[in-house]
Design goal:
CATH class of chain B: Alpha Beta
Number of domains of chain A: 2
Largest sheet of chain A: 7 strands, mixed
Strand order of the largest sheet of chain B: 9-8-7-10-11
Strand content of chain A: 15-25%
CATH class of the largest domain in chain A: Alpha Beta
Oligomer: heterodimer
Structural class of chain B: alpha/beta
Strand order of the largest sheet of chain A: 14-15-16-13-12-17-18
Mean pLDDT of chain B: 97
Mean pLDDT of chain A: 95
Chain lengths: 500, 288
Amino acid sequence: MPTSASARKTARRGRPAPELIFGDLWAFDPAPETADPKLKPRYDLFIGGRFVAPAGGRYFDTINPANEQKLTEIALAGSVDVDAAYAAAQRAFTTTWGRMPGRERAKYLFRIARLLQDRAREFAVAETLDGGKPIKESRDFDVPMAAAHFFYHAGWADKLEYIAPGRGVAPLGVVGQVIPWNFPLLMLAWKIAPALALGNTVVLKPAETTSITCLKFAEILQDAGLPPGVVNFVTGAGEVGAAVMTHPTAAKVAFTGSTEVGKRILRSLAGTEKKLTLELGGKAANIVFDDAPLDQAVEGIVNGIFFNQGHVCCAGSRLLVHEPVAERVLAKLKNRLRVLRVGDPMDKNTDIGAINSKPQLDKIRSLVASGVKEGAEMYQPPCVLPSKGFYFRPTVFSGVSMSHRIAREEIFGPVLSILTFRTVDEAVEKANNTAYGLSAGVWTDKGSRILKLSTELKAGVVWANTYNKFDPASPFGGYKESGFGREGGRQGLLDYAKLV
Amino acid sequence: MTRLPITKTPKPYVGGAFIRSESGRTYSLPDAAGNFFANVPQCTRKDLRNAVEAAAKAGPGWAKRTAYNRGQILYRLGEMIEARRAELIDTLVRFGAGRGAAGREVDATTDRLVYYAGWADKYEQVLGNVNPVASPHFNFTVTEPMGVVGVIAPDAPALLGLVSLFAPVIVSGNTVVAVASERTPYPAILLGEMLATSDLPGGVVNVLTGFRKELVPTFATHTHLRAVSAAVDVADRKTLRLGGAESIKRVYFSAAATERDWFDERTQSVYAIRDFLEFKTIWHPIGA
């Protein structure tokens, strides 16, 4: 009688439920994406509607992080080039774009969206080669979402009287923008589309490791017949970015990147009247309650932290699990990790591609080492990593406490830290106990609890029973040290306008 | 024999109580004629930190009040000011305003409070919305107060300037630590008495008196002040931005260039409320 089902259940507790793990049994055949990314051997700066050589005549290599091979070379802009870009943008603002009826601006933006859709596969391949993200993500997420941003904002260009009830809006002028390497084309779209819809002109600098899709996008701007100087691209590393951010012609600057650099920009702009928006780092809590549908939650956890190798500012990098289900969730998670395919980003079956760069890989390694040293328990699935290129195994730390570096610092890699909680209040306290406030996730079947948590979590985006969802109509941006301003939606538009 | 009048000891209103500076320091305040009027507390960085603590404590309760209730309390503050209109006018006159101008300032102050009181249960409907995302999710954007906000009032108009800055901040559930006009702090002292009798919970609005050069750096660097709304000069603007960078503080400067600008009705709008709100976007799947 006592040896029946309940005893067996007790004996099994803490172990994974029996489950077939196919990933260990069969190797997948390679399924490489073969579309031609149509790369040029060398890319110049894009200023005043033309590709122009940098005044200094210098170029730098951009490599494929999946195999460390050179893809092409990119112009290194100097301050003279940045000046030229701002001059072109200012001229375009006063002579064409700033005076054009919204209806006409809209048509250019619609056209850009369409031209990007036409060349979607080519752009997806280029994005994956340059940045290391799995082709299925660049193909199904980055590129279509970038096109969607242009399409969405196009329609606003002639309806701006509706974005600020009671007041009129006007463009600001020339906007300087610096974007990161994790979603190169998509971040470009997030920045450029609303700026242009309002009638601003743009000087944008992509990240130095991922400039290719930005410069390919310049070809689309040419094909669309966008007036010269409305959008200008200068390429290079941090010094170029600083020159773009602090240029006296910029009426507004927008930055997406690390909190550390964001603070530096804030200091460098103190004493100026420039408008500013910052989209900075995060250390999001993904909270799983015992009544959550656990299989779906595990999918959400995996998507939350391993999407784009964890190079996501809103990644669900802190998993807060309700104690009663902590062991089960960890067991399910480990099973799920074993079937994640890590490797060649160009393979259509790859789940986790290459880490964007060697410095980023080193940073991830050092933070993971700190996690081990501080006493958290590490799990990495057994998988074979390619011999060349920058790769990191999906990693889960359990037994993490709030004081550990892996619970406080943004790792920006495929590394999940698991903490536990007993009560709702404890979950909220732990989730909010961070200087960041970009995003959060909640998994529970209880509607009232979702509403309570989504009210109390100090984060700009809350995903309830889902994670890492994005849309041009949905404002994105953070609280506290995750920055200010929003991108997307009606709220994001207003950050590119002045009230009149 | 004439009766010797009882003069009032000026005490700033902090945490629902009338305090002296922890430092014990005061400075002598003359009236417009140059006669001694009173000793005003010269609040310190420590007083500012204490006030932030009081504001932080009051914050969650205030933010949880219903919008309807917050609106009524702001309106009640307007009632308190209207009731002491004559006293406020006399005070402004004593510190140099013409009687007509003083009346206009007090009336504009009351009207401004009533204006923002009415916004309490409406701004959300104007600023937030449901977003039509291209996936099966219910997605909506709402606003939330930021927390404790620093307010640095202009020297003049002493009363209208202070109220114009804090009213749009508290209407959404933020709490405020303010420093009054340095030149004319006394109207803010009187306002403290009205705050105390207006049903506004203690700690929601805290008003210090003292010297800007002593307090502005702490307004800039105090990390619990999530935002600052300031009417300050170019040098202080830079100090606030530099000091605020470390905690990514939201720093807003008043656009009013002249005293007269504060009276302009165009300076009051839902966008003054918006500056001290965070937007939060919530996603939920639509399904079975």
